[in-house]
Specification:
It is a single chain. The protein is an alpha/beta fold. It starts with 13 loop residues before the first strand and ends in a 6-residue tail after the last helix. Bound molecules: ligand LLP. The site of ligand LLP has 23 residues, from helix 10 and helix 11.
């Protein structure tokens, strides 16, 4: 099977140009750093469209599939517009994400509202904008959603989020499908959930089940098993309550290649497993093949993004024979290393010709000892003023960024065909205090 983008560390068109600098899609990264400043998030449109297309191709043999990009991985209006034009809908989990896709003129019918504690205001906002599906997570929400739908005189199509009891081998914080999870109905609770909806909620229409087993997944069998659980449960509910549940949302989770040690399956491989499981299990449980929803996030935007930093100070720790270099960003623009111990690959973007490699630890600039971006990485004699390119930062970097230490959030540029455009402006000091009230 051919490689897909999630199996690469670098964006599709990354190379050294004639100046010896790194470039992506014809844009020299050193020039980008000069023009826009650092830290700088860079998104490559070519890689983004390539992976979107890889997903579409991989599932093209299955006629009823809705690709819903998981907005939590990266949500900006420009990215939403590009992915929507490429045929994607959206998984959204907050009023802010709903607002952003609406701002990008996304057709709300192609959005699913997920989350374990949606507020009344957010649900109202979603229904008023005619959101396609709400994935109902718990008993509290069944009642709340029905009340709001009644008030707005609407019938809302819903999915029931279930916990399929599948354990996958990823970081504990990003595992979601195991039994002790804050998300969704336990399989022992689905009967009561369905009965409550059928008896008490005239304004809700159940379309099917939804599950998500975790993130940064490298295994394929877990998807096969998850789908079996969903199909078996769908069939059981259909028979018991005389329903015709015809939709199945299997969530996201496909992993990407942060370092050489990561070996995620290709998009084609994961599609093959998913489609085989649907075929096998629909036959086994005698169910018509459902409309499939998938919600990839990280694998869509992760590899397309890099972050550029400028190297500033450095420090030797003679006792441990160790060298730190510090960059002008860190845990506020990418909390993943300090939060999950996530690993990254990086290179010096400016020309280092034949300079020797040196083992260093890349520290962030924030006031925490844990603000280390990359431990023990080999870089070509890093010096003050060099531009460091950290790969695979397109997912869960900007979306999880903060203003810790009142440091401004970086800008984001989109590169394509030797052209670069700002898609997120760098925050300003005035913006930092614009909501401050002095008493
Ligand atoms: N669908 C649902 C219901 C989800 O909860 C998630 C991710 C996705 C889809 C997308 O999963 P993906 O394809 O991106 O793996 N902040 C963590 C990741 C948290 C994922 C939460 N849910 C990280 O930086 O690794």
């Amino acid at each position: 099977m051919p490689k897909t983008i999630n199996q690469d560390i670098k964006p599709y068109n990354t190379k050294r140009n004639e100046k010896g600098n790194l470039e992506i899609s014809g844009c020299d990264l050193v020039e980008l750093a000069e023009k826009y400043g650092t830290p700088l998030y860079v998104m490559d449109k070519v890689s983004l469209l390539k992976i979107a297309n890889e997903y579409k191709q991989a599932f093209s043999s299955y006629k009823k599939v809705n690709m819903m990009f998981a907005s939590k991985a990266l949500m900006t209006s420009a990215i939403a517009k590009i992915l929507h034009e490429a045929g994607f809908g959206f998984d959204v989990v907050s009023g802010g994400e709903i607002h952003t896709i609406n701002h990008a003129k996304v057709d709300m019918n192609f959005a699913t509202f997920n989350g374990n504690n949606k507020t009344k205001e957010e649900i109202e906002m979603a229904l008023k904008l005619n959101i396609g599906r709400v994935s109902v997570d718990n008993f509290y929400e069944i009642k709340l959603l029905d009340e709001i739908a009644q008030k707005l005189n609407k019938t809302q199509k819903i999915l029931l989020r279930i916990t399929p009891g599948i354990e996958c081998h990823t970081h504990e914080y990003i595992q979601t499908g195991h039994l002790d999870s804050k998300f969704g109905f336990d399989l022992t609770q689905t009967d009561l959930a369905v009965e409550t909806i059928l008896k008490e909620c005239k304004n809700l229409e159940i379309m099917g089940l939804h599950a998500h087993i975790g993130s940064q997944i490298f295994e394929t069998q877990v998807y096969y098993d998850e789908i079996e659980v969903l199909i078996k449960e769908t069939k059981r509910l259909n028979d018991k309550y005389n329903l015709n549940l015809s939709e199945m949302n299997i969530g996201g989770g496909l992993g990407i290649t942060y370092t050489e040690k990561d070996c995620p399956p290709s998009v084609d491989k994961i599609a093959e497993v998913i489609l085989t499981s649907i075929k096998d299990n629909c036959a086994k449980y005698n169910l018509d093949e459902p409309t499939l929803y998938i919600e990839p996030g990280r694998s869509i935007v992760g590899t397309s993004g890099v972050t550029l930093y400028t190297v500033g100070s450095y420090k030797n720790v003679p006792h441990f024979n160790k060298k730190y270099i510090a960059v002008d960003g860190g845990m506020a623009d990418n909390p993943r290393p300090s939060m999950y111990g996530a690993l990254y690959s990086a290179e010096i973007a400016n020309n280092k010709a034949d300079e020797p490699f040196e083992k260093v630890t890349v520290a962030g600039r924030f006031c925490e000892s844990g603000d280390i971006l990359i431990k023990d990485i080999s870089l070509q004699s890093p010096k003050t003023g060099d531009i460091l390119c950290v790969y695979n930062t397109g997912a869960y970097g900007y979306s999880m960024s903060s203003n810790y230490n009142n440091v401004l959030k970086p800008a984001m540029v989109l590169v394509n065909n030797s052209q670069s455009d700002i898609i997120i402006k760098r925050q300003t000091y005035d913006q930092l205090t614009q909501n401050d009230v002095i008493l």
